Structures are given as structure tokens and as C-alpha cells.
């Protein structure tokens, strides 16, 4: 305890000197409250850490990767080492070279691939955490919308990067994904010439490569800057509550009493970043990624076209009887628009999940639908599903979810009324009651909150 106090005092003196000489307080990130020193409050920082590692590892891979479908004399042995006679494209051969000839290349490539999976997974965790806790409510509406666009760009990074090793599996899955993307209303026909280029395989690979290493990263960087700027403007969201009068931002006086970003919060986030990199390297070392066969290898057995896990749900949706690519794209567009404009659809001033049963039901249904469809698509890729089986599988999912949400909301309202009755029996009515939550009577300010 004594060492901890001495350490904090010494650290504050050192950084106080640095801030005085550099005027860091004018450009460093704002202080944050002490209650935010929990991992659940920094899920967005975890996504940012994963993004920065992807940038670093991707830049190292660019030193060796060649985005070309032509055969190259430098890599003539890569196809022969597999016992095939058909020439292997340079994109696949350069990937093969990274794995087998570059020192630590297999580890680097595996961490980049698994890091992409981890970034998308952390992004979903960050999204649903914000959804359930209502962080999209005023004054953070635009921050939520920018975050939604960040989510779309992240999925775009995964889609464009999937083709770059130029395996037969990734090539087939990309073509199926392009069919869906080109069916987008209005946007699809505009994206066609931009994505397909001159219609050749080289044109497609070049466009995907440019989008993956330049266009989408620039958009991600700009959106990330806007997201952080809005976070700086409003600060971290307070804990969710049933009190509609709770302030959703901190005053300047309160901000001065918070923990400074430099160096305390920076070290806190850095600790989790090092843990993330360590776990990522451990997984990549234990389960290195195996490179599938290349495009055009006629001697290889063709497998079932299957995308990465984050797009399995959409590919399985097309397998439903009566669901065309146009319908699948329409469903995806509706979900995206709902998420994008959610701050203007949920107008309640209460942020606690128990006071928003309808939107909790929608969010939980989307989460369950995504998980079930992902597992379903992985188990039976490309298998047509009749309408009766779809109804008997997904229907009970939404129904049971609705019943569970209503049960918990009913229990909350019942307990709320019981606590209110006991308090009003002990304290005379003062007339200072607040508007009640949905389905519950009014309560004094001190009776609301996180009880």
C-alpha cells in the first residue's frame, strides 16, 4: 500500500513535468471517472488496440506479398512442392513463401488472420454492450452512428482481405459475396464497375487489395478519429439508470476531479493491449493457419463454398427456400438502417435495460439469430432449408426470447412496486415524484437508479 502511494505520487510528478513542458493538457485525451476502470467500460479501446495491431502486422506482410494472379519465376517451386503441374499464381505463392520461408512468417500471418477475427468479435461485444446499456441516447447519437459505420467498414476489411491469399475457397466465397453486394439497391450497380474492374481475375484481386490496404483503412482511420473526438466531447457514458433526469455528460468541474488519461488510463489500456497481443500470439503458435489450395489447381478436390464465420449467417439466409439474394440483401439493409438510426427510434430517456423491454427483445433476437445462423451455416453450408424447418427453428427462438424478456420486466415492475410501497409507507408523500418507468408507478428520485 505504501509502495503504491509512493509510485502514484512519483508518476504524477514525472507526468506533471512532461505536461508542463509540452502543454499536453491541450491535446491529450480527457480524464475519466474512477468507476470506469473496469474492462467493460473500455471495450471500444480493445477494438482500437486490435485495429492498431492489424495495421502493424499488415504492413509487415506487405513486404513480401504480391497481389498478382500471374505466375512468377521467384515462386516457381511453391506449386511443384505440392506435387501439382498447374502453375500457381503469385498471390498464393507469396503467401506460401511467407509461411514457409520468412522467419516467423507463419506466426505473423496467423496472428494477422486471427487478429481480424478477434477484432470483429470485440467489435460485436462493444456493439451489444452499448446497445443493452443505452449509450446511444442523447447526447451520443452521432457517436453511435459513427460507430455503426465503423462496424460496416470493419466487416468490409474482413471481406476484402479474405481473397488476398488467393485460395480456391476464398475465390469462390468472394464471388458469392459479390453477387449479394451487387444486388444492393442503387448502390450495387454503382459498386459493380468499381469492384470488378476490367472483369478479369487480376482486376478483381487488384481492387480487393487496394480496398483492403488503402481505401478502407483510410476510411476506418477517419471514422475512428471522429469517434474518438465525439468521445472526447461527451466523455464516457455514465452507468445505466432508471432515472430519466440523470445527466448524460460530466461537467468541467467533475472532469477535473477524474483520473487523468496520461499516464494512468494510457497504462491501464496498455496493460490490456499487451494481454491481447500475448493471447493472440499464443493461439497462433498453437494453431497456425493452414493455407488451402490455390485458384486453378485442377488436381485438388473442390470443397463447399463457405465464407468466414462473420458472414456465415448471410450465406445461410440465401439457403432458405424462397429467399433470393435480393431478399437477403433487403433484410441486411433493414437491420443496418435500424441500427444506424436506433438513437432516434428509442426515444425513452431511461437507459437501464429493464426499462426498455421492446428494444432489449429486438437486440437479443438479433444476437440469437446471428449465433444460430452462424452455427447453422457452418454445419450445413449450401444445403437448402424448407420453409417449414425455418419456421420451426427460428419461430420458437423469437417467441421464447420475448417471453423471457416479458417475464424479467414483469418481475422488475412487481418488485419495483413492492419497494415503492414500503418506502412510501415510511416516508410521507412530498410531491417530488418522478415519472415512472414503463408499467410502474412514480417514484422519488432517491428511489430510482440502479436498485
Question: How would you describe the overall organization of this protein?
Answer:
- This protein is mainly α and 451 residues long.
- The protein is built from 16 helices and no strands.
- It has helices at residues 2-22, 43-61, 76-80, 90-100, 105-133, 141-162, 168-182, 187-196, 201-234, 252-256, 261-286, 312-318, 325-340, 342-345, 357-379, 387-426.
- Helix 2 (43-61) crosses helix 11 (261-286) and helix 12 (312-318) crosses helix 15 (357-379).
- The radius of gyration is 26 Å and the shape is globular.
- The two termini are 32 Å apart.
Q: Looking at the structure, what is the overall shape?
A: globular
Question: What is the first-to-last residue Cα distance?
Answer: 32 Å
Helix content: 55-70%
* Average pLDDT reading: 84
Number of strands: 0
Number of helices: 16
Major sheet: none
Low-confidence stretches: 441-451
The CATH fourth-level homologous superfamily: Cytochrome Bc1 Complex, Chain C
Please state the structural category: mainly alpha
Please provide the ordered H/E string of secondary-structure elements. HHHHHHHHHHHHHHHH
The figure for the number of domains is: 1
CATH architecture assignment name: Up-down Bundle
What is the CATH class designation?
Answer: Mainly Alpha
Radius of gyration: 26 Å
Q: Fill in the CATH topology.
A: Cytochrome Bc1 Complex, Chain C
Q: Which strand-content bin applies to the residues?
A: under 5%
Amino acid at each position: 500500500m505504501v509502495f503504491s502511494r509512493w509510485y502514484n505520487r512519483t508518476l504524477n510528478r514525472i507526468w506533471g513535468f512532461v505536461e508542463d513542458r509540452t502543454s499536453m493538457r491541450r491535446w491529450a485525451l480527457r480524464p475519466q471517472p474512477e468507476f470506469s476502470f473496469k474492462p467493460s467500460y473500455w471495450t471500444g479501446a480493445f477494438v482500437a488496440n486490435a485495429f492498431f495491431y492489424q495495421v502493424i502486422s499488415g504492413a509487415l506482410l506487405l513486404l513480401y506479398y504480391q497481389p498478382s494472379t500471374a505466375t512468377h519465376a521467384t515462386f516457381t517451386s511453391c506449386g511443384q512442392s505440392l506435387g501439382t503441374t498447374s502453375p500457381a499464381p503469385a498471390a498464393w505463392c507469396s503467401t506460401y513463401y511467407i509461411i514457409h520461408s520468412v522467419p516467423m512468417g507463419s506466426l505473423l500471418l496467423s496472428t494477422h488472420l486471427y487478429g481480424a477475427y478477434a477484432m470483429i468479435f470485440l467489435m460485436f461485444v462493444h456493439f451489444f454492450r452499448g446497445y443493452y446499456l443505452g449509450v446511444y441516447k442523447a447526447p451520443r447519437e452521432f457517436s453511435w452512428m459513427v460507430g455503426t459505420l465503423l462496424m460496416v467498414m470493419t466487416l468490409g476489411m474482413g471481406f476484402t482481405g479474405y481473397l488476398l491469399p488467393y485460395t480456391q475457397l476464398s475465390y469462390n466465397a468472394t464471388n458469392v459475396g459479390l453477387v449479394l453486394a451487387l444486388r444492393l439497391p442503387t448502390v450495387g450497380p454503382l459498386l459493380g464497375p468499381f469492384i470488378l474492374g476490367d472483369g478479369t481475375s487480376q482486376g478483381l484481386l487488384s481492387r480487393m487489395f487496394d480496398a483492403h490496404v488503402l481505401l478502407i483503412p483510410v476510411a476506418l482511420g477517419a471514422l475512428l478519429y471522429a469517434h474518438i473526438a465525439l468521445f472526447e466531447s461527451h466523455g464516457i457514458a455514465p452507468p445505466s439508470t432508471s432515472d430519466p433526469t440523470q445527466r448524460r455528460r460530466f461537467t468541467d468541474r467533475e472532469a477535473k476531479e477524474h483520473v487523468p488519461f496520461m499516464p494512468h488510463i494510457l497504462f491501464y489500456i496498455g496493460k490490456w493491449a499487451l494481454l491481447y497481443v500475448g493471447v493472440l500470439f499464443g493461439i497462433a503458435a498453437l494453431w497456425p493457419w493452414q493455407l488451402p489450395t490455390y485458384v486453378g489447381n485442377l488436381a485438388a478436390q473442390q470443397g463447399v463454398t463457405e465464407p468466414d464465420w462473420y458472414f456465415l449467417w448471410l450465406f445461410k439466409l440465401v439457403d432458405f427456400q424462397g429467399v433470393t439474394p435480393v431478399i437477403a440483401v433487403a433484410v441486411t439493409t433493414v437491420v443496418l438502417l435500424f441500427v444506424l438510426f436506433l438513437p432516434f427510434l428509442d426515444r425513452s430517456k431511461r437507459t437501464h435495460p429493464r426499462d426498455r423491454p421492446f428494444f432489449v427483445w429486438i437486440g437479443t433476437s438479433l444476437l440469437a439469430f446471428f449465433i444460430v445462423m452462424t452455427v447453422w451455416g457452418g454445419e450445413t453450408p449450401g444445403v437448402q432449408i424448407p420453409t417449414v424447418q425455418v419456421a420451426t427453428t427460428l419461430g420458437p427462438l423469437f417467441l421464447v426470447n420475448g417471453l423471457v424478456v416479458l417475464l424479467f420486466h414483469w418481475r422488475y415492475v412487481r418488485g419495483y412496486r413492492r419497494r415503492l410501497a414500503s418506502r412510501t409507507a415510511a416516508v410521507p408523500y412530498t410531491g417530488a415524484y418522478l415519472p415512472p418507468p414503463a408499467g410502474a408507478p412514480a417514484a422519488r428520485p432517491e428511489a430510482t437508479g440502479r436498485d
